[in-house]
Design brief:
Low-confidence stretches: none
Number of strands: 2
Mean pLDDT: 77
Strand order of the largest sheet: 1-2
Strand content: under 5%
Radius of gyration: 36 Å
Distance between the termini: 142 Å
Number of domains: 2
Order of helices and strands: HHHEEHHHHHHHH
Helix content: 55-70%
Structural class: mainly alpha
Length: 272
């Protein structure tokens, strides 16, 4: 049986013939970058990335410091006090990145990178990274460090005071001994105070005076000798009646401590 032949309709005859493979127009040619354009693009991308990283790091650091301030623990944070020192006294220009509000006393780091070169951004990023590694950057970090240090003081130095008394000594030490001095005397001085004296039982004002005096020590031996003199004056006052104590302190040439610790030696003043 013969197949019927298809008769093209007029509409079908007017349609253009389609090729089996439809031809696509080639994409427009991309203009090749010059070396200068390529370098400028890469620099802009690098700046954008580093700027974002620095802002994020600064935000995290500031959030930790704000939490410390809210908890009233900023004085116990070595990280907080270190950045405060950078902002106020550092001669290497770190103060332009680290700020202290002189009205509120709050410490913050800057996330502004607008006027910085890429090299400066890399250096600043490294500084921020070091701060992020500080154990006392957060409230939980400070609590862990203080608890561990208190346990060490009890086990290694036979410290018999409370954790609050231990913290009081450390706070006054950090407030009165400059960071560059701490590098020489460091924790050995505080531990020596705890081990060889009962200064921690004194008032905060008297402990302030003690550390201001110890801050003039040239080395640990000199500081320990000063601690011994302070302790001797305290023992004399506790052992003798006021008039006898005053004479004994004069004989030992310890009169300076009566002036240094007005609260502790108040009963001796009229006999000095």
């Amino acid at each position: 049986m013969k197949k019927k032949r298809k008769i093209n309709s007029p509409e079908r005859l007017r349609r253009p013939k389609q090729s089996k493979k439809s031809k696509q127009s080639p994409p427009p040619k991309r203009r090749r970058e010059t070396p200068e354009q390529k370098a400028a693009r890469r620099e802009a991308e690098t700046r954008e990335l580093k700027s974002w990283v620095i802002k994020d790091m600064a935000k995290r650091i500031n959030a930790g410091y704000a939490a410390l301030e809210k908890a009233g623990m900023e004085e116990q944070s070595q990280s907080y006090k270190t950045v405060e020192h950078y902002a106020v006294t550092d001669p290497n220009g770190k103060g332009k990145h680290f700020r202290v509000d002189y009205i509120t006393g709050k410490v913050r780091v800057s996330g502004d990178t607008r006027n910085m070169t890429i090299a400066e951004m890399e250096e600043y990023q490294e500084q921020l990274n070091q701060i992020l590694q500080h154990k006392t950057r957060t409230v939980s970090g400070v609590k862990k460090v203080m608890k561990k240090a208190y346990k060490t003081a009890q086990e290694r130095y036979q410290f018999s005071g409370t954790e609050e008394e231990y913290q009081k000594v450390w706070e006054t030490y950090k407030n009165n001994v400059q960071p560059d001095r701490r590098q020489k005397l460091d924790s050995e001085l505080v531990m020596a105070v705890l081990e060889y004296s009962d200064i921690y039982k004194m008032s905060r004002e008297d402990i302030d005076a003690a550390f201001k005096y110890l801050n003039t020590s040239e080395d640990l031996d000199d500081a320990l000798e000063s601690i011994a003199d302070i302790q001797k004056a305290i023992e004399i006052m506790d052992f003798y009646e006021p008039e006898e104590a005053a004479q004994a302190i004069k004989d030992e040439h310890l009169e300076m401590f009566v002036e240094m610790f007005p609260n502790k030696f108040e009963a001796l003043k009229e006999y000095m």
